[in-house]
Specification:
Layout (H helix, E strand, L loop, with lengths): L13 E2 L1 H14 L3 E4 L6 H12 L2 E6 L11 E8 L12 E8 L2 H8 L4 E6 L6 H12 L2 E2 L2 E2 L4 E7 L13 H4 L4 E5 L3 H10 L4 H9 L19 H11 L5 H12 L1 H16 L3 H6 L10 H13 L6 H13 L3 H13 L2 H4 L3 H9 L1 H4 L2
Helix pairs in contact: 1-2, 6-7, 7-12, 8-9, 9-10, 12-14, 13-14
Length: 367
């Protein structure tokens, strides 16, 4: 506890994905630079892209590790200028030498931006000291080699941490001081579930994460080619699962995405799906489909139903949820309808079926 009575933990600069999104939207509008840190594959770049989509602005992604200092100084160019164009210059020569750095590529775009432009330096911590120094000049004085950066440009950057074994070198202290704030991104499995429902993540995968949230982000650097779970890896797992790989290959392929331990756990989860009644049968027969009694099976079935939510199926989902409630599974009933509505909130929350259900469950919705 500090002298002010505040816990140090409260002041730790750690944000969830939704909090980081809110921060970046505000800072983009105010043109305040932000540096984001975090483990590999945690979603730093994805959130910046979401901010771009939300603000409907331009995004320039720079991979600082392959940048050259000249990229932010310009291309050297020399020419001979006729002395007639320089009246004060008295010389016997007909021409005099001139040289300048001509902006090109990203620098030219930064100078000429007419509307909001987010310049995102990805993996800045891996860049050379000379590239980092170039960023210092751009962000503080908003000038580099006499060229003024457009007032419409905001600078965001991201880097892994030194403990991630990602090749991060020392971060120049003056460069850190150029950012209005430096925050670390962490995961929140509930927020990830909301994202997954809207982004076509296989329901077998997101129900697994809901039941075993420790596997959403368990990054551990390794000296070999083994991997551990990250949000990026979970997305890749969903992509690979949809390929319907032969059963004899699945364990090994999934292990190459999220590591052997997590892969074993996921395969075990899939075995519950084999015991499920067909979710499409439940949607077609919400009054007749059986009510599962094993919590793990109810959990899994609710995820499958939520993934199939649409204006055509929301009525059947609500009807089955009501039956779950009558059978004593209120928690699962509410979870099912909440998840289903998040699939397309603007449309599904406006349906008669959802409005009627919400009116009967005001207290549960607010929890």
């Amino acid at each position: 506890m500090s002298d002010t009575g505040a816990s140090n933990t409260i002041a730790e600069p750690v944000l969830t994905p939704e909090e980081l999104f809110q921060l970046l939207v505000l800072c983009a509008k105010a043109k305040h630079p932000v540096l984001i840190t975090g483990a590999p594959g945690i979603g730093k770049t994805s959130i910046v892209k979401q901010v771009q989509d939300f603000l409907m602005c331009d995004l320039q992604i720079s991979h600082a590790i392959v940048d050259s200092p000249l990229d932010y100084k310009g291309m050297p160019y020399a020419w001979m200028e006729p002395t007639a164009s320089v009246p004060s210059r008295k010389t016997e020569c007909d021409t005099i030498p001139r040289a300048a750095f001509i902006p090109y590529g990203d620098l030219e775009t930064l100078i000429n931006a007419k509307t909001l432009l987010i310049h995102f330096a990805d993996d800045l911590g891996q860049a050379s000291d000379m590239v980092k120094a170039a960023y210092m000049q751009m962000q503080l004085g908003r000038k580099i080699n006499g060229q003024k950066i457009s007032d419409e440009v905001v600078f965001f950057a991201a880097t892994n941490r030194k403990q991630d074994a990602a090749g991060v070198t020392r971060f120049l202290e003056p460069l850190k001081d150029r950012y209005h704030t430096i925050v670390e991104l962490t995961t929140d499995h509930n927020q990830w579930i909301k994202w997954a429902l809207k982004n076509d993540i296989a329901h077998e995968v997101f129900t697994w994460i809901r039941m075993s949230p420790q596997f959403l982000s368990d990054f551990k650097p390794a000296s070999d080619f083994s991997r551990t779970p990250t949000p990026r890896g979970i997305h890749q797992l969903s992509d690979m699962y949809k390929l319907n790989l032969p059963k004899e290959m699945r364990m090994r392929v999934f292990g190459g995405i999220i590591g052997p331990s997590a892969a074993v756990n996921f395969i075990t989860h899939l075995e519950y799906y084999a015991k499920l009644q067909d979710p499409d049968f439940v949607l077609a027969n919400p009054k007749k489909a059986r009510i599962e009694t094993e919590p793990a099976l109810i959990y899994t079935l609710c995820g499958s139903l939520a993934a199939r939510a649409s204006k055509k199926t929301i009525g059947a989902i609500v009807e089955y949820a009501d039956r779950l409630e009558k059978a004593g599974f209120m928690e699962f009933s509410v979870m099912l309808v909440k998840d289903a509505s998040m699939k397309d909130a603007n449309k599904l929350m406006a349906t008669v079926e959802f409005i009627d259900w919400a009116g009967r469950h005001n207290e549960q919705i607010s929890l």
